[in-house]
């Protein structure tokens, strides 16, 4: 009965035209009494109803704060992190009631231009994108972003330990220096272990002599996946999917400079520090790194 009363209340509140049905008409159509409806409407909300409304406000606020990028699992995780005792299925149901649907990823498009290496390079990762400590296994890749001035190319280096973007570079070209600049940033800002694995696809930039020399300079081991198999570099592809799905596809960049600034903010302020990852136990890359550092100090 309460569902019918709630439907009447919702329709009555949303009615803005003269032809809209009256309460009397709706109660007759739904087979409920008019007096029963008004008695229900005058009743103060129950504790459970108040709780649901409070949760709806918190859910909607979180959804907006993450630009619609979070589905019910991450929204639930954020609520739990904030001290809320709520089930995942209830969050899912309330998001449906609020018509909150997370942005959906677009299909993967291959962007790699295969290189022709002088010698074979092994795949040292074999789709295992995990590590037991920072700086021992990283992945790199390139993508492109559309601006009114033309394409902006983005290269990244991601640490497999905590999925953190530790190096990146952006330019209007795809020359090898784009990926070496990203690698240089990673090596300068983070401690990469001797013989750290640096994994990538077989793009021309990653198979070049210049890139190989840079790896040797930093004491890193090269690893590459198979040509055209995106799963062999899934962690790097996953980051670019998040970047585009959660940010780039909702923006218009008049200049490359505007795109660079926005992407840098996404990486530094959102992805590394605010975005929780299911693979990290719904923690952020920054939190995982700090926890590791604290554990080392306490040891």
TrEMBL record:
Pfam family, one: rve
InterPro entries in UniProt: HTH-like_dom, Integrase_cat-core, RNaseH-like_sf, RNaseH_sf, Transpos_IS3, Transposase_IS3/IS150/IS904
Family matches, as Gene3D superfamilies: Ribonuclease H-like superfamily/Ribonuclease H
Membrane spanning stretches: none
GO BP terms: DNA integration
Molecular function per GO: nucleic acid binding
Domain Integrase catalytic: 130-293
Function: Involved in the transposition of the insertion sequence.
Protein name: Integrase
Naturally occurring in which organism (per UniProt): Mycolicibacterium doricum
């Amino acid at each position: 009965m309460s569902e019918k009363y709630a439907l009447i209340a919702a329709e009555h509140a949303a009615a803005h035209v003269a032809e809209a049905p009256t309460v009397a008409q709706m109660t007759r159509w739904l087979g409920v009494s008019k007096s029963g409806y008004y008695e229900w409407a005058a009743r103060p909300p129950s504790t459970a109803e108040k709780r649901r409304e409070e949760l709806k406000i918190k859910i909607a606020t979180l959804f907006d704060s993450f630009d619609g990028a979070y589905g019910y699992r991450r929204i639930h995780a954020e609520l739990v992190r904030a001290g809320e005792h709520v089930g995942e299925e209830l969050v899912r149901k309330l998001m449906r009631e609020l018509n909150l649907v997370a942005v959906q990823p677009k299909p993967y498009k291959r962007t790699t231009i295969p290189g022709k290496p002088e010698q074979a390079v092994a795949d040292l990762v074999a789709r295992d994108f995990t590590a037991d400590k920072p700086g021992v296994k990283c992945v790199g890749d390139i993508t492109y972003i559309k601006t009114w001035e033309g394409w902006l190319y983005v290269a990244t280096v991601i640490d497999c330990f905590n999925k953190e973007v530790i190096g990146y570079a952006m330019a209007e070209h795809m020359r090898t220096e784009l990926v070496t600049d990203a690698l240089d940033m990673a090596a300068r800002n983070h401690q990469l272990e001797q013989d750290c694995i640096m994994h990538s696809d077989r793009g021309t930039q990653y198979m070049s002599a210049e890139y190989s020399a840079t790896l040797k300079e930093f004491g890193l081991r090269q690893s590459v996946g198979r040509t055209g198999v995106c799963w062999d570099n899934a962690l790097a592809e996953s980051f670019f999917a998040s970047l585009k799905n959660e940010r780039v596809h909702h923006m218009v960049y008049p200049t490359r400079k505007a795109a660079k600034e926005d992407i840098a903010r996404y990486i530094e302020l959102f992805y590394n520090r605010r975005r929780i990852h299911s693979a990290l136990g719904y923690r952020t890359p920054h939190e995982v790194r700090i926890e590791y550092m604290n554990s080392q100090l306490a040891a």
